[in-house]
Amino acid sequence: MKISNGVIKGPSKVVIYGVESVGKTVLGSLFPKPLFIDTEESTRQLDVARVTPTCWAQVTSAVDELIKDRQGFETLVVDSMDWAEKFAITKICDENPSEKINGIEDFGYGKGYVYLAEEIKKFLNKLTILRNKGMHIVLTSHALIKKFEQPDEAGAYDRYELKLEKKTGPLVREWCDMLLFANFKTFVVEDQNKKNRAQDGGRVLYTTHSPSFDAKNRCNFPKELKMHIDKLPEELEKIIKFPKSSPASKPKQTDKKAEVKPEVKEEVKESAGEQTAFHAKLYSLMEGSGIKEEEIRKMVIMRGHMPENMPLDNYPEDYVNGRLVANWDKVVNFINKKIRA
Hints:
By secondary structure, the protein is an alpha/beta fold. The protein has 12 helices and 9 strands. The protein folds into 2 domains: 13-240, 3-Layer(aba) Sandwich (Rossmann fold), CATH 3.40.50; 255-339. Helix content is 37%, strand content 20%. A hairpin with a 5-residue loop joins strand 7 and strand 8 (196-206). Helix 3 crosses helix 4, helix 4 packs parallel to helix 5 (168-175) and helix 10 packs across helix 12 (328-339). 30% of the residues are buried.
């Protein structure tokens, strides 16, 4: 086992959602050296670097390019995720040409939402790879008021949620390190005529869960952070401006790794990634089954799970352990039938 201790400082995965015109885009522009994937053309009045995609393929290819070369950027801002999701829905519908398929609901039995969730899952995996290469990831989204009925309580109430489809919203919430809800704070006061009046309390970032909205953080933030138009909240700035650590040295090869067959060794030499304990376990299985890295990568690319240029050593831990190692018999069977046939 490769055991580490202490706090691991590094880039953050942040989701900022809120009501219209609260300043989500401006907040994203305050992160270090940002590049925007501007899906709704909301950055026209900001002096920022941007790409303006018109389809889902352009959204994902922009991330693929940054995985190959960050080009000096330190933050990727997807503004907004709910508009990017519309591109993904269009792509899924276009891949199923039929007079009956005009929208995500037309697939029937909720299948369209399952296809969409798979597409968003692949996208989030790519963003995690990019985060692991040293970039902050910021996703913005609009907020939606929905009726919520708590299972263990009688009655229902309204609350703010991400303006995403029913299966993709939970994926984005689970994926991020920080889920921040931006809103205008309003106070209700009684005037001299004993009538209630609303007073503006400024813009606020809410950082912890409430019955009225979803929010979370793993940094012991106060419940509310004051939003500014020219700088990040001090608490957030301390987290994202982490000290740059020197590249870690590659771990020594284990005995098992040294025994890998010559052809597998050759594949490993081509990999630019840093091998870790979970990769060593995968290589051990590959050795026992006579599977080459090239065959693993072909299978993964065929399924659309990782970019074509991604070395096996750069595959994230949850994918290696959860998809490959845990289902090794199925992996071997797939390679024998689909790749070696």
